[in-house]
């Protein structure tokens, strides 16, 4: 009898303990941020984590009465790891939102988990058009390759470029860039004599660049993911491609602000189309760049950082709007249709597609005060992902 009472008391205490803890636990709002912090895509992880932490430092860690907890996990950009980590974050940590996704295969690996668990997944980096169609719980704060590639295909033929060889990383975003650039360029009367694809993992650009040299097009159009641009630029210079009269053009991934300043003079004059330059002259961007650099030992933010920063804003605003109640569906509903001023310019989360609508800029690498920057010289406003109309 005595023993039973003790047991009952213990059970009651445990229950009380649990319910005593419950409010505190419930009060925490967890963001599971999965990024490549090591390996080939590590610069993406470093940029996005720094941007997310800057957002929290600027905007506080309490929203709608909830304490924000950022849980960062390194997937080394291997999609099996991304999936395993997402599962663990949803099941064990009970995260309210999943975010990050350094490369397309990672985002696609996590999409079914977002759907099954009704957890919003904010894609801050990966940029293949079809990603948002892989789950109704995906919202994107980065960009898409079709969105930025078309502008280059319109600019090039008006600027003396009639033949182009394309060179892309052989996976989702590269195939999107190749298709949307070359179709539009051909529509504009240009010729694409060859389309080259290099492996994503440990690419050796040398044999491809040799081939381009032999073909001698007016320009080489390049897409490689953030972090790989410096290697392309270096080998382009070493092979004397520029001296042979071949211009380098591409999406802004190749003149990535994370690496641009170390690329040297071979990068000067390279024209790219993209949604973000650290040199964007708005007051909002100047503040963002200054505060990011101050908090990160002078690291210059790149387009990945902006995807992370704006992704955090989308999550914070959704939590504010839904009053911290209602779970994944309420959050998702409050993410759709958000309009705000990003460091990149005005942006809008299209409620139908859950993809980002934004300005695309034409930019040329120039030296200003001894530093290399992507200097914007033209803009196409409010560009939707053209991949969605197919
Ligand atoms: C992607 O894998 O979707 C990706 C990664 C890096 C980029 C662009 C796209 O710069």
TrEMBL record:
Pfam families: Peripla_BP_6. Keywords: Signal. Coiled coil: none annotated. Residues 1-24 form the signal peptide. Residues 30-368 form the Leucine-binding protein domain. The keyword Signal applies. Belongs to the leucine-binding protein family. This is ABC transporter substrate-binding protein. It comes from Ramlibacter alkalitolerans.
